[in-house]
Amino acid sequence: MDIVSATILLILVLDPFGNMPLAVSVLKHVEPKARTRVVLRECAIAYGVLLAFMFGGDKFMHLLRLSDDALAIAGGLILFLIALRMVFPHAEGIFGDSGETGTFIVPLAIPAIAGPSALATVLLLVSREPQRVLEWVAALSLAMLVSTVVLLSAQRISGWIGRRGVIALERLMGLVLTAIAVEMLLAGIERFIVQLPR
Asked: How far is CA 30 from CA 25, 26, 104, in A?
């Protein structure tokens, strides 16, 4: 996987367009002048969490004695479940709540942006090719930049394309992410089978 593919994957996993309704919901009680500051703060917190997981993920894996194959299979499963929820969203919201809570870390930074799928993805990227960690950091930074711009423009974009447009865009991203998740899952299973004693 190259840096462009990794960036696209991370953008799909971070799901900025799917997070727009949540951002609009949690920010409606915030003064318009403070909304930019809140979004930047939440995105910075999520970015910090993802970076910490990217650099500390290898030690975490060794501590739990997890193999790369197990992580690939688990990451594929998690991405697949997240993608299904993007394609078939629940009525109560993306993460099972209405988003009416505060905007301090939860639910916008975690788990909306830095959720299980994003954490699993950055961990998987580094564990598969740790020598390219600077490329993965660059990919994460670009993906985070795109997500930040989208969330900063959430009110405006929602007004332009409407709620149905946002839902259609999220489902399209979910379909693409489903294919990526299946590919990741199959790759992990294939490597596991190859290592089995004959």
From this structure: 10, 8, 12
Cα distances (angstroms) measured from residue 16 to each of 27, 68, 120: 15, 28, 17
The predicted structure's pLDDT at residue 157: 87
Per-residue model confidence as pLDDT tens digits over 59-84: 777 787 777 677 778 777 877 877 78
DSSP for 68-80 reads HHHHHHHHHHHHH
Rounded CA-CA distance 153/173 in Å is 18
Cα→Cα distances 110→107, 138, 193, Å: 5, 21, 35
Question: Given this model, what pLDDT does residue 104 score?
Answer: 61
Nearest to 7 by CA among 164, 163, 122: 122
pLDDT interval class at 94 (50, 70, 90): very low
